Amino acid sequence: MKAVSAFWIDRQYDRESAGDGQSRFGRHVERHAADFADCWGDIAPVSFACVAWRLATPPHLEPGFARFHHRVLSADCLRNPWDGTLIARLSIVSPWPDVLSSSRVWGRDRGWRGWPETFGQYLAPSHEEISRNPYARATLLIDAPISLDELPAPPDARTSELVGLADRAVTVITRELNELLVPMLTALDTAAPS
Q1: Which SS3 state, helix, strand or coil, does residue 77 take?
Q2: 9-45 pLDDT, tens digit each
Q3: Which residues are within 8 A (CB) of 180 and not within 5 positions of it... i.e. 6 or more apart?
Q4: Which residues contact 102 (CB under 8 A, 6 or more apart)?
Q5: With CB atoms 3.0 to 4.6 Å apart as the test, which of 100, 102, 131, 168 could cross-link to 96 if both were Cys?
Q6: Cβ atoms < 10 Å from Cβ of 38
Q7: What does the DSSP 8-state code read for residue 178?
Q8: Residues 46, 43: Cα–Cα separation, whole Å
Q9: 97 vs 101: CA distance, rounded Å
Q10: Closest Cα partner for 93 from 6, 2, 180?
């Protein structure tokens, strides 16, 4: 069985698409350095990590510096308003729940369909497809804490280390999300079709 990754950083594409062989993501971070302004000098790495993740992922950077498994529709990092910790909020394509997939009585022969899939990617049905068939697209909404242990501390002001620190934050979040989601995605990929 092929090893599953929930998230990965595409460094080769990043270098090749930079034009100067450096980093497309790095140039993007430098152009949007003002987005980090509220993070300077913060004693917690949460806000800094959230901005770095947002800049590394679609729709802010397309294609993203951090790439997603084909079931991942969205992946956001947020500050938990309860205690200020880092949480990930993810939306993932899922098969229908057993209560729906085990019986088609609920559908009354209307031709209900799940997620359209093209070349291994899950897509929203087009308006034309919806004009012909009803769709019930199941998703899982995941809210989970992310460890702060290895996230870089934000600098006190804009610095030449900004790109490296942002890269480190995205790398740590990517690793943490993989530990969290790979078992779930493996189970979903081996389950019935979506």
Answers
A1: strand
A2: 999 999 988 877 789 999 999 999 999 999 998 999 9
A3: 6, 88, 144, 146
A4: none
A5: 100
A6: 12
A7: H
A8: 9
A9: 6
A10: 6
